[in-house]
Amino acid sequence: MIMRHSSVHHSHMPTLQELEIKSGRTADKIYKEFKELVDEDYIEWELNSALESAVIIEGWERPDPRFKTSQTCAHEVGWGLDGGNIEYWTKY
Predict the structure, then answer these.
(1) Is it true that domain 1-61 has CATH number 1.10.10.10?
(2) Fewer Cβ atoms within 10 A, N terminus or C terminus of the chain?
């Protein structure tokens, strides 16, 4: 998120020092996470090059298929869709 924000709003990729300050992580952890982002195809970055040379491929997390988003179906709502159920208005 820090990388995406910096690249969009400040027109540059953050330096290692900026990432350390903003994330609160050590340089070793930041490099490890960069490698993970490369492996998962979120960024393009050459190992052992400056972090500022990274290119964001995908700026947001992908949806996790293990979690299903809930959607309200019309049959779950008991009033107001067809205009025929006035109990909501008369019982209160």
Answers:
(1) yes
(2) C
